[in-house]
Amino acid sequence: MKTILNVIWLVLSGFWLFLGYLFAGVVLCITIIGIPFGIAAFRIGVYALWPFGYTTVERRDAGAASCVGNVLWLILAGWWLALAHIVTGIAMCITIIGIPFGIANFKLIPISLFPLGREIVPTDQPFATR
After folding, report:
1. CB of 13 closer than 8 Å to CB of 101
2. Residue 128 DSSP SS3
3. CA distances for 102 relative to 24, 37, 85, 120, 123, angstroms
4. Dihedral sign, CA of 4, 52, 37, 61?
5. What is the pLDDT of residues 28-76, one digit of tens each?
């Protein structure tokens, strides 16, 4: 079932979300300071491409630098991304068929707000460690 949902998601909005995050990651990687943010944007982009069957968990080894980075991300880009996911999620929830896709958009909100210090793992092993 998750494969069918991922394919429909890819056609409806996943590809465009992936391209947006990919573009943002490339722009962020231009400067040395922006490389961690660019890598986070690439990671979110892949997650936005195939969201069904995956979830996010906090990394235990994330330190104070990821906390400071998350604050910067939230101020500069995070709240815009979260707002876009909220609007898109509400729009997709208008129809019964779109409800799973709206929920997937809502699932992307926490990682779009605070991407650093989080890891994307399959849903069947959310507590797995590296």
Report:
1. yes
2. coil
3. 23, 26, 9, 19, 18
4. negative
5. 899 888 888 888 889 988 998 888 888 888 887 778 888 888 898 888 7
